[in-house]
Design brief:
The mean pLDDT is 93. The radius of gyration is 14 Å and the shape is globular. With 127 residues, the protein is an alpha+beta fold. The longest helix is centred in the C-terminal third of the chain and has 21 residues. 28% of the residues lie in helices and 37% in strands. It has a 6-stranded antiparallel sheet, with helices on one face.
């Protein structure tokens, strides 16, 4: 299964990238804790451990690719999440693509990208 979502975030691509590349900063938007991973191959933890993963590709201001998992998933089960940043009038078009999520998690994940990512990022940079 796959998820595709996008929103315009009122900040330049580099600034949006910096928050999303830093699980600690991203988690802080929700009032939760995280563990940062700033290099490819490094493991991260976000949202008080609700999401763990590994940085696969980090291209500043352009793209982040991460292997994701939730503690409830079967051992070794991951999905691939790609964040793409495109400069547009009014800021950055943030595109989120997630592939390989378990079928029974698809609706939950699709419903919560706005809650935990798109809306908080928009509000953070609009402030």
């Amino acid at each position: 299964m796959s998820i595709h979502q996008q929103a315009t975030i009122p900040a330049d691509p580099q600034r949006v990238y910096q928050v999303l590349a830093d699980a600690e900063a991203l988690s802080a938007l929700s009032g939760k804790n995280g563990k940062v991973a700033r290099t490819e191959g490094e493991e991260f933890v976000a949202f008080d451990g609700s999401v763990t993963g590994r940085q696969i590709e980090l291209v500043p201001g352009v793209r982040i690719v991460q292997a994701w998992r939730f503690p409830q998933w079967a051992p070794g089960e991951h999905s691939l999440v790609t964040f793409t940043f495109t400069a547009v009038d009014g800021g950055t078009r943030l595109t989120i693509d997630q592939h390989g999520e378990p079928n029974n998690w698809h609706d939950h994940l699709a419903a919560n990208w706005p809650t935990f990512y798109l809306t908080p990022l928009t509000e953070h940079f609009a402030a």
